[in-house]
Automatic annotation (TrEMBL):
Places the protein is found: Endoplasmic reticulum membrane
One Pfam family matching this protein: p450
GO molecular function: heme binding; iron ion binding; monooxygenase activity; oxidoreductase activity, acting on paired donors, with incorporation or reduction of molecular oxygen
Predominant subcellular localization, coarse grouping: endoplasmic reticulum
Database matches in InterPro entries: Cyt_P450, Cyt_P450_sf, Cytochrome_P450_Monoox
Protein family membership: Belongs to the cytochrome P450 family.
Originating organism: Trichonephila clavata (Joro spider)
SUPFAM superfamilies per record: Cytochrome P450
Lineage of source species: Eukaryota, Metazoa, Ecdysozoa, Arthropoda, Chelicerata
Gene that this polypeptide is encoded by: Cyp4v2
Entry keyword Transit peptide: no
Name of this chain's protein: Cytochrome P450 4V2
Keywords noted in UniProt: Endoplasmic reticulum, Heme, Iron, Membrane, Metal-binding, Monooxygenase, Oxidoreductase
């Protein structure tokens, strides 16, 4: 049985469906039989320069956000797949508080080889019970108990950064990492290691490299 006529009919129906959805959502209106969608806008600019394609994708998103400043969202079509970008806080609140919009997109599967099936990339039935376990760690009363430690380590970080202001350039990755290490070790493990105070690199960081 030849499936090409049926496949062509389904593809045509999908073109019309995408055209209809494109008219409803804020964003660039794709052509009826355009296979690339908004990808053509991206490739037409990126091929003229040597920058990363990802950089131009971010610039494209920022451009659409400026084109529709009063809208709560906009849509970019990557081939046949719509990507919805939310730009207003009240719209984000609606999504985060929804009990239906809880299943993650299939795009998160690309992160599984790197992150595994953790809270970030796992499906709903896995991440929901794990999040319930972690919720107690972010209660206001629990965080308030560790506020003195956060203030102490942050003030020491500010002091270290002030000493760098006389230089033309300085790397802040190391002092911020040491501050984070001090906070984590005292709040979670209850151990004072003094990573920021030590002039030498802590043994923990050296062993982790």
């Amino acid at each position: 049985m030849d499936l090409s006529p049926r496949g062509g009919l389904l593809l045509t129906r999908y073109f019309f469906w995408r055209r209809k959805i494109s008219q409803l959502l804020p964003g660039s209106k794709v052509r009826l039989f355009s296979v690339l969608g908004n990808v053509r806008d991206l490739t037409s600019v990126a091929t003229k320069n040597n920058r990363l394609l990802f950089v131009y994708f971010l610039q494209l998103c920022l451009a659409y956000a400026k084109m529709f400043p009063k809208e709560k969202l906009f849509c970019i079509w990557m081939f046949f797949h719509p990507l919805i970008f939310i730009t207003k806080a009240d719209a984000i609140e609606e999504v985060l508080s929804s009990t239906k919009l809880i299943e993650k997109s299939y795009l998160y599967r690309w992160l599984e080889p790197i992150l595994g099936t953790g809270i970030l990339s796992s499906p709903f039935y896995i991440w929901k019970p794990r999040r319930k376990i972690l919720n107690n760690c972010f209660r206001y009363e629990f965080l308030k108990e560790h506020l003195p430690i956060l203030n102490e380590k942050s003030q020491f970080l500010v002091k270290c950064l002030k000493e760098e202001t006389c230089k033309d350039f300085t790397k802040i990755v190391k002092p911020i990492s040491l501050c984070a290490l001090d906070i984590i070790s005292e709040t979670i493990l209850g151990i004072h290691i003094g990573a920021q105070e030590s002039k030498k690199e802590p043994e923990f960081i050296h062993s982790a490299k």
